[in-house]
Amino acid sequence: MNGLLVDDDALFLRTLQRALARRGVEAATATNGAAALELARTAAFDFVLVDLKIGKESGLRLIGPLREASGGARVVMMTGYASVATAVEAIKAGADDYLLKPVTVDAILRVLDEEAASAPEEEEPMIPLGRIEWEHIQQALRETDGNISAAARLLGVQRRSLQRKLAKKPARGSPE
How far apart are CA 78 and CA 83, in angstroms? Predict the structure, then answer.
């Protein structure tokens, strides 16, 4: 099985790519829509994982063109900003499934396995609240280019409170 991973977070892409490789799944990566479409046109993929927010681009707008360019590949939307509205939009745009980040490799492989996708789902443990908070903080830091004061304002917390939270270790739940 081989696929295409599309996300603007290069660290997440490398980590997920290595984790999938350990399971025997090869994956190419793209950090923007243009690169993703070029790869989809030049190579055959079994699946495409697309992030909802790719820099300033919307992954929703890429679903149709990626589906067209990649033929029969399963297209799965991933996001750290899950909502019912975006899930419905993704499915209407042609996505086969919708995953909440941080996502485990096991969850990705279950979604990509068509036989398992039709079987009843096992109950997945909830993502720890600390992990969700950590991801939210990291997103604010990315949006403010690492400026802690600006991130604190964006999050509606005091700068010192944010610094204390950053000093703690992140909760478990990475793509490993």
Answer: 11
Percent of the chain with pLDDT over 90: 19
What does the pLDDT read at residue 47? 92
Q: In angstroms, rounded to a whole number, what is the distance separating the alpha carbons of residues 32 and 91?
A: 21
Q: Give bridge partners of residue 50 from the DSSP assignment.
A: 6, 77
pLDDT of 129 higher than 80? no
CATH superfamily of 2-118: Response regulator (3.40.50.2300)
d(CA 61, CA 54): 11
CATH of domain 129-167: 1.10.10.60
Q: How far apart are CA 94 and CA 67, in angstroms?
A: 8
Model confidence over 32-49: pLDDT tens digits? 989 989 998 888 899 999
**Neighbour-count burial for 29-44, b at 16+ CB within 10 Å, e otherwise:** bbbbbeebbebbeeee
